[in-house]
Each structure stands twice: as C-alpha cells, then as structure tokens.
Design goal:
Helix 4 crosses helix 5, helix 4 packs across helix 8 and helix 5 packs parallel to helix 6. The N and C termini lie far apart (59 Å). This protein has a six-stranded mixed beta sheet with strand order 4-5-13-10-11-12, sandwiched between helices. Strands 8-7-6-9 form a four-stranded parallel beta sheet. The chain has a three-stranded antiparallel beta sheet with strand order 2-1-3. It is built from 15 helices and 13 strands. The chain has 439 residues and is of the alpha/beta class. The radius of gyration is 21 Å and the shape is globular. Helix 5 links the parallel strand 6 and strand 7. The structure holds ligand F0G. The site of ligand F0G has 22 residues, from helix 5, helix 9 and helix 13. Ligand F0G binds next to helix 5, helix 9 and helix 13.
Length: 439
C-alpha cells in the first residue's frame, strides 16, 4: 500500500491510486508491505544468487532481481533496459586524496542511460503502464529526462520533459531527443519546472515520474541491496551521496532500513548527503536544526547556483524522507565548494573511473568528513557516483584547459590537476620531447 509519511496523518492508499502526495494532508508517500514475506534472509540471498545464472529479463536487471521487495505481482509486464548491476570500484588515488585506507565508489553512471535514474525509472514506468497511462512526464536537470525518455520509448508511451532553459548539458538533451521525448524548455530554473509539472499532474491525466513518485524510490532502493550483496551482505560504515532533489538519499535510507529489518544485513550505514555550496537548502536546514535544538523550518533556496547543473536545485521535494534517512542512520549533511567539486572530480578521473560534476561532491565531502574526524581513516566508506563522465564534457574540457569559472561573479577556479592538450608538429622528435617530460 501507499502510506503517508506524516505520523499524525498516516493515511493509507491502494497501490493503484494515482497519487504523488497524500490525498489528505499533502505529505510524501511511502510504499509499505502489507503481507508477511515468507522467506528468510538465507533463502532470499540464495534465490537472488541463483537468478544471476538466469536468462529471464527480470533476472538480468539489477533492480527486478530483488523483486520480492518491489510492490508488484509476479506477472506484471516489466519495462526494463537491464539496469543496475553496476560496479563497485576500489579507488586508490581517491582514498589517498581523502586520507582513507580505502574508498569504494559505486558507479551508478554505468546504467543504460548513464545515471542512477534508470533504477527508479524501470519501476515507475512499469507502474505507469500497469495503470494504463498514455503520457509520462517529469521536470529535470537532465538525467531524469534522459532516463524517462528511454523507458517511455521502451514502453511505447508518450513522454514530455520540462527542463530549465539553457541549463541542461547537451549530452542529456541529446539523449532525450534521440529517445523521442517532447522536450519543453521552461523559463526559470529546475524548481520552476517542478512547480508547474506538479500543478499540471493534479489537473491532467499525465503520469508524473519525478522522485516524489514513491515507485521511483522503490526502484532506487534496490541499489542498497546490490551494494550490500557486493560487500558480502554487509553495509559500509559510511555511505555518501550527492543531494539535489533528495530522492536518492531517501531511497538508500529505505533500502538499508528494509535490509536490516529482514536480517539481510546486521547494520545500517551512516548516510551523509553532500550539497554544492550555492545550492544547499538541505545542508542549511540540518545546520539550523543542530544550532536550534531540533527546531527549524525548511527554507528553499531562491537562486540556487552551481556548475554541477544536475544538483542546481533550491526546493528539493523529498527533503523529509532524506532527513529521515540521515537522522535515523546518524549521518551528516554538508556542503562543498565549486573548487572542491572540480578537484575531486579530476581525482575520480585519475582513478580511471570518471563521473559528472554532481557525483564528485561525494569524494569532496568525504575528504572534509575525514578531515573533521566524522569518518575514521580505517572505516569502510562507499561514495555513490550518480552520473557518467560523458554527461558533461564541456565541464571537463574547461577544467583541464584552465578556463572553468565559478557560477557567481565568474571568478576563475583553479585547475589543480589540469591535464592540458599539447599541439605538436607531426614529427617524431617533437612528440618525443613531449613524452619525455611525462610524469
Ligand atoms: N547526481 C546526478 C548526476 C543527478 O542527475 C542528480 C539529480 C543528483 C545527483 C541528485 O539526486 O535528486 O536524488 O538528490 N538529478 C535530477 C534530474 C534532479 O532531473 O536529473 P537527487
């Protein structure tokens, strides 16, 4: 069933009611299991392991392989692109950079459309199809758009995406166009797009699949299952995620809560959320709560600013669920500067991994959290990389050619780990003279 997260309300709704927020009080909705799961932890682990050998499309998906924890009957028509199954990398240079003994990076950019959104979208679009919807829609800083466009195409559904005019990377727009979505550029920022699409969703028959939709969170929570399995059915001490609209952190909170509840892991990780300094309403809220004895109001940021365009968000819809995840797990919410993001991103690249700018907030944040003693040097730490390096190549080229500037006042950023291109004559000796200076 769907249940309102507000404890004083707690209204319950059927899974097939097309709702995004509680029909009674307007708060967010969670999906909850009503029956009892008739398998213990050991038999679930064995079943999921067995499915790795299967050719069933659901078993090839890193999301649907864990379908005992998804709110569908066994015969539902699944819309899948074989999402999930993403690698967990050891990142040795990043570990040194953060002053950690080791650091693991869970690369959600290795999903079919290059971001973590696919793990939620397969579930949301499956639900849309089950409800018989014709048109699916979202507001987006680019990745949700690319992902929805692909899954809608697989389901042969119509798709509309609202993006802030001139603020989305070309790669993400190119994906949405290629997958056949109707792209609508809206004056204003992501928050303006979100506001208008929510209004529209109330009045019309389109199906909204932003992470306010609890089915998205169900899909994204399975990443916690995959990660726990990769760690030998354990949770790391710390899990660090970027924070934008705050769906991802909400989903990890729910996933690890369910894993622990079913005895699949023995602990939950501390979930910490990292925001860019110029787009940090959630970090400000957390700081206000600490300063004022747990009494603070959530205040949206009117003019969010960051070069990490994926997380340029001032009014995150899922902040209550994300706060629940941080509070329950004992995590932190902090900010990092544009300079810290840029350098951490270059360092992730040097590990041969790469990611888009928003994802690099994690490594920048971990470095800070180690610095102030919140993360111990020998603790197990996983950073979630949310998007692929090729999502924003303009940023990469500008960093390495030392032309990246901060979003406000155009102040130049330092390219601490710059890797510039050399123009060389087509002569072996000219090339050799460059190569001998390589370090
Ligand atoms: N990283 C990337 C690469 C993203 O695209 C996003 C969000 C986030 C982090 C933040 O995740 O919203 O769950 O806190 N992108 C959305 C979009 C808003 O429209 O693509 P979150």
């Amino acid at each position: 069933m769907q249940r309102c997260i507000n404890i004083e309300c707690g209204s319950e709704f059927d899974l097939d009611e097309r709702l995004y927020v509680c029909a009674r009080c307007g708060d967010l909705l969670d999906i909850e299991r009503t029956g009892v799961l008739d398998r213990d932890a050991e038999s679930l682990r064995a079943l999921w392991r067995e499915r790795l050998q299967s050719r069933d499309a659901r078993d090839r998906s890193g999301v649907w392989r864990f379908r005992e924890f998804l709110p569908f009957a066994d015969d539902v028509a699944v819309i899948s692109l074989a999402e999930g199954n993403t690698p967990l990398y050891d990142a040795t240079r990043c570990a040194d950079y953060c002053d950690l003994a080791s650091l693991k990076l869970k690369h959600q950019g290795n999903n079919p459309t290059g971001s973590f959104k696919d793990t939620g979208m397969t579930v949301a679009v499956t639900q849309a199809r089950k409800l018989g919807m014709r048109l699916v829609a979202c507001a987006s800083t680019g990745n949700t758009a690319a992902s929805l466009a692909a899954y809608a195409a697989r389901a042969r559904m119509l798709c509309a995406i609202l993006v802030p005019d001139g603020q989305v990377s070309e790669a993400k727009l190119a994906q949405a166009l290629d997958y056949g979505a109707k792209v609508l550029e809206i004056e204003g920022n992501f928050d303006s797009c979100m506001r208008v699409i929510q209004e529209l969703a109330e009045q019309s028959s389109l199906y909204l699949v932003n992470s306010i939709n609890p089915f998205r969170i169900e899909g994204q929570k399975t990443v916690a299952f995959e990660l726990a399995e990769q760690l030998g059915w354990d949770a790391p001490d710390h899990l660090v995620v970027p924070g934008g609209n705050l769906g991802n952190s909400s989903a990890f909170g729910k996933g690890f809560r369910e894993l622990l509840g079913h005895g699949l892991t023995r602990k939950q990780p501390r979930i910490s959320v990292i925001q860019a300094e110029g787009a940090a309403p959630f970090a400000r809220f957390a700081a206000d709560l600490r300063a004022a004895d747990n009494e603070a109001e959530f205040v949206a940021e009117q003019q969010p600013q960051t070069l990490a365009s994926a997380i340029k968000i001032g009014a995150p819809v899922s902040w209550k669920k994300a706060w629940r995840a941080v509070r329950e797990s004992g995590g932190r919410v902090i900010t990092v500067s544009e300079q810290e993001i840029a350098d951490a991103k270059a360092m992730i690249g040097r590990d041969g991994i790469g990611c888009e700018p928003a994802s690099a907030t994690t490594v920048a944040g971990i470095r800070k959290l180690v610095g102030d003693g919140f993360i111990g040097k020998d603790e197990s730490v996983v950073a979630v990389l949310t998007g692929h390096l090729l999502k924003d190549t303009d940023y990469v080229i500008r960093y390495h050619s030392e032309t990246l500037t901060a979003p406000e006042h155009d102040a130049p950023l330092r390219s601490t780990f710059a890797n510039s291109i050399s123009r060389v004559a087509a002569r072996p000796c000219a090339i050799e003279s460059v190569l001998k200076n390589l370090s």
